[in-house]
Every structure is written in structure tokens, then in C-alpha cells.
Design a protein that fits this description.
The protein has 106 residues and is mainly α. 39% of the residues lie in helices and 6% in strands. The chain has helices at residues 2-12, 44-56, 68-84; strands at 21-23, 41-43. Helix 1 packs across helix 3 (68-84) and helix 2 (44-56) runs antiparallel to helix 3. 16% of the residues are buried.
Length: 106
């Protein structure tokens, strides 16, 4: 739940655009995640909306046993956690992530 709250507050605090794209990876077997591309890309807003829907679903707010629901929740939690730690955001091109200047070169 803490991971979801951090992600939820990010766009409202001016930190992250809800249209930002992250690489979550392919969905585990049995999981259908609206907005997730076949290559595993999804917007923050689509990921948060689906996580919120799952939390509000019967049994979604307290999952204690292994199964498909737990696997899907874990997938979303991991994707949100990686986004909160700035590990899976997709950059528009190489110029948005320039290499640092080499201190030994000209």
C-alpha cells in the first residue's frame, strides 16, 4: 500500500507526469492489465488505475494466499516500486540521458 500511495502522490506534487511511461515487463500468466503493451510498457496513470481497481476488488485489499491475484498484485507493486525509485522510466531518446563528461578527455 505504501508503494501505491507514493506513486499516487507523485503526479499531484508536480514530480511525475501521469502520462510518463514505464517498462513494467510482460504481465505474468493469468494477469490482464489494461494499457500494458505486449512489450511491457504502460503509463503511470494506467498502472495506478489498475492497481487502484485491484485494491477495491473483493479480496484485493487483503491477499494472504498464493494465487493469480497475488501474482498480479505483486507485478503491479514491483512496477510502481521501480518507478518510485526512478528505475524503469522510459526516456524519449538518447539526448535525454547524456553520458557524463569524461574528466580525462579534452
Amino acid at each position: 500500500m505504501n508503494v501505491f500511495c507514493c506513486s499516487f502522490l507523485g503526479p499531484y506534487g508536480g514530480g511525475v507526469s501521469s502520462n510518463a511511461v514505464v517498462l513494467a515487463g510482460p504481465a505474468p500468466g493469468g494477469c490482464t492489465i489494461p494499457g500494458l503493451s505486449t512489450l511491457g510498457f504502460i503509463t503511470i496513470s494506467a498502472l495506478m488505475a489498475d492497481a487502484n481497481t485491484e485494491l477495491g476488488a473483493a479480496g484485493g485489499n487483503l491477499t494472504t494466499s498464493a494465487g493469480t491475484q497475488r501474482t498480479c498484485e505483486e507485478f503491479k507493486k514491483n512496477a510502481l516500486d521501480a518507478a518510485n525509485n526512478n528505475k524503469n522510466f522510459v526516456q524519449p531518446g538518447p539526448n535525454s540521458c547524456p553520458l557524463p563528461a569524461c574528466p580525462y578527455g579534452p
